Amino acid sequence: MREPAPSLSVYMDRFAYGDTVLFRDFRMRLEAGRCTVLLGPSGCGKTTLLRLIAGALPGASVRAADDAPLPGRIAFMAQQDLLLPWLTARDNVMLGYRLRGIPRRQRSALARQAETILAVVGLAGQGNARPAQLSGGMRQRVALARTLMEDRPIVLMDEPFSALDAITRYRLQELAAELLAERTALLVTHDPLEALRLGHAVYVISGEPARLGPVTVPLGAPPRDPTTARLLRLQAELIRELAGSPAAVAQ
Amino acid sequence: MTRVLAPLVTATGLLAVWQGIVVATGVPPYILPPPIAVLNVLVTRYELLLHHFWVTAFEILLGFVIGSGLGFVSALCLVSFRRARLWLLPVLVASQALPVFALAPLLVLWLGYGMASKVGMAVLIIFFPVTSAFSDGLRRTEPGWLELARSMDAGGRAVLFQIRLPAALPALGSGLRVAASVAPIGAVVGEWVGSSAGLGHLMLQANARMQIDLMFAGLFTLAVMALTLYFAVDWGVRLLVPWQSETVDHD
What we know:
The complex is a heterodimer.
Chain A: E1 8-17, E2 20-30, E3 35-39, H1 46-54, E4 61-64, E5 74-77, H2 89-93, H3 95-100, H4 107-120, H5 136-150, E6 154-158, H6 166-179, E7 184-189, H7 192-198, E8 201-206, E9 211-212, H8 229-244, H9 246-250
Parallel strand pairs in A: 3-7, 3-8, 5-6, 6-7
Antiparallel strand pairs in A: 1-2, 1-4, 8-9
Chain B: H1 2-25, H2 35-44, H3 46-80, H4 82-95, H5 100-111, H6 115-139, H7 143-151, H8 156-193, H9 199-208, H10 212-240
């Protein structure tokens, strides 16, 4: 990474869609170089919060501890892989550079770097494959490689593994935890086990306007073994907290 | 094999019915010539037919190239400049209320009896489907791609040319297919209104002289040309968007 990851403080006075107030006087803090996880049922405003922090929606004030501006320092990984079907896997990994314009003499160096990152995520030699030729898990690996290629100190992830089968999800969580270490990350998910495997701090988000529950801090470094008794007990607690939240009761 | 054979069998059956009607009703050849007579004309007067074929084919091809080129450029302008959309789009849509046929005499008056007026007709009729299909495609880019590009600090031009334009190519392809199927209408109507060569001219003359067999031969030649153009464009579009998978047959 080129620069150390800063901590972020997020504040929202009020954010609403029509009459539905999603956030009011909302505060949260993302610790530097740590993975913060927001856990909540579908439709509780998790994705909206992520987009607000990313600046894709206006309305949130996000301040980095180093006071440097945020644009250019955030990478985004969505639930869909968002690969461009007409580009090869390698060109998709290089997308950010392609969009910003690559000087001719840097082209081959960047292509080599993209191939290296593809190898890291387990796709060595697949650089020339098009997205349609890859499985869902492989496509999400390319998306992860694209996020890594951007090499941003802050990473926002919106349920990036939720569309995958259990085993693929497990492997990708492992990979993501290793590769995103040292970055300030915010992961949004509805899977308590995923939250406990990857997060340094886990919050349950619920209600309208949304509130954060008490923080859960699992011991040990991610990616954690999901089969230990301690993790499973924490998972049970989180499920209870999720089930007790007003949004879940309404459903 | 059946895919090729089946339509051939159907066509042969229709020709047999046609021949049967002529024999059974004893309708005079200047009302409905038997298919054998049409075939005879196709063979004996193929030089005449070929001469007119090339005239019309050239008009259509030139009209197709100019019309789709203009459509391509104006769609790009419509989506790139809000002002263009505001000032031009309503006029463009309203202009489609005018039947192109009604403009044919004017075009002949302004552009003369030669090729220019027919090319002009073809351009007019091709321009709109290409513009509307392509600009629709450009405006319906997957929002996730645009958000991703924004998070990568891509400029508007890079997004347009590297994401929105390639993403709109399938839509452009549909526009070009429609254009290919309506292009012969423009050229032939132009020839009907005033010309000294071309299949439309030939058919009009043959009709006036009660050479209905020659008229049918002209019609057949025109159909062959239109089908060739359609399949050529269809093939070209497939080359243009190799990543677009065909929808699987459901029947």
